[in-house]
Amino acid sequence: MGPSEWRAIGKSVQGSTHLRTQKPNQDAIALYPDEGQGIPVIVAVADGHGSEKHFRSHIGAYLATRTAIDVLREFAERLPERLEQTMVIDHLPAAIERRWKRAVDDHLVENPVDEEMGQSAAPIGDNPTRYVPYGTTLLAVLVTAGFVVYLQVGDGDILAVSSDGTVEHVIQQDPSLIGNQTTSLCLPQARRHFRTQFHRIAGRPPALMILATDGYANSFEEGGFLKAGTDYLHLIRTKGIDHVDEHLEQWLSETSQKGSGDDITIGIVAAPGIDACNREQASTAPLDEESSSATGNVDGPELSFVEQPAGTWLERVINLRPVARFHQRLLGFIRRTTDATAIRLSDRKFPRGDGRESC
Asked: Which residues does 252 contact at the CB level (< 8 Å), separation at least 6?
């Protein structure tokens, strides 16, 4: 299989809670190439913070995904002969932060804050608070013929699914964050909060790489989210990636409705040779059809994460109301006993408490 057969797909949906409250989708996604096929392939997803303080975070998320695509594409086009991991760690986070904040400055010049909020616009200069309204997370992956780069600032998940269906987090959660805190591109020196991984492709690469905003993982009970990675692999092998692409938006919308209520965005990068066109591999995939949480009856039309027979894992999607009450009490305790330096997400998923935030 040639490198041109790498594929990328993705969708972003407005959460059911935001639909009811008429708030815009705070998430964003961008692919390169636009058709999602070829080398290099790049996927970027972002999740704007969504509170009153971050009232332009949906724009910040959009700018973040486009910035990541541009920076990573230029990086892939100008690779040095000997690429070292330190080049990735030292260069890419700083370049993305710098380019994103420049894009925010350009947007502020054309759209002063006082026009939208009845307030004086923050000056375009050395005042770092001007980036706060645009606060967002960012997750991105770059795949070339020789290596894969993963980058993340803030919450969300990047998963690698091996050909045998094993699912692992590529980047572990930031241990400094508690509850529903997250770091952000709007922080001063945001580059220091990036977490990166650089993997050379030696032998077989991951079958799938999945990037998801936290609204997706928050829709599942423990273990269900990782199981979804295995199910995506099974669906792509048996039905094809175009089938998944065609139904993904519906699946995510229904997952939000039955789960977190939050906006959900997923990007999937599929390695060559795992699509349904490779029937021999599909037929030998070590997945138990009866236990597949994505498919239900694999021979019938029930092939989504939400069209399941009664009693399957999806019918046990977590009920976030009691969890929200618990988190509200926990965050109240944390705010009284700690001096948090990270962004506290607002009412995207949980009540805002006393509304204190910092950036």
From this structure: 11, 13, 216, 264, 265, 266
Quote the pTM value: 0.78
- pLDDT at residue 118, as a whole number: 41
CA-CA distance, 246 to 294, in Å (whole number)?
A: 15
The total domain count for the chain is 1
Q: What is the pLDDT of residues 193-214, one digit of tens each?
A: 999 999 988 878 899 999 999 9
User: Which residue's entry shows tokens 């936290």?
Assistant: 214
What CATH number corresponds to the domain at position 214? Answer: 3.60.40.10
Answer yes or no: is 198 within a domain: yes
Q: How many angstroms separate the CA atoms of 290 and 278, rounded?
A: 22
Closest to 10 measured CA to CA, from 184, 251, 304, 255? 251
Whole-number percent of the chain with pLDDT over 90: 56
Supply the mean pLDDT for the chain.
78
Is the confidence at residue 101, as pLDDT, over 50? yes
- The conformational region for residue 355 under phi > 0 = left, psi -120 to 50 = alpha, else beta, is left
Q: Which of 97, 13, 111, 24 is nearest to 63 (CA)?
A: 97
- Going edge to edge, which strands form the sheet with 264-270? 7-13, 264-270, 208-212, 157-161, 167-169
Amino acid at 127: N
Per the domain annotation, does 68 fall within a domain?
yes
Query: Residue 329 belongs to what domain range?
Result: 3-344
- Of the pLDDT bands very low, low, confident and very high (cuts 50, 70, 90), residue 252 is very high
> What count of Cα atoms within 13 Å lies in the side-chain half-sphere of residue 181?
23
In a domain, 350, yes or no: no
- Bin 261: left if φ > 0, else alpha if -120 < ψ < 50, else beta: left
359 located within any domain: no
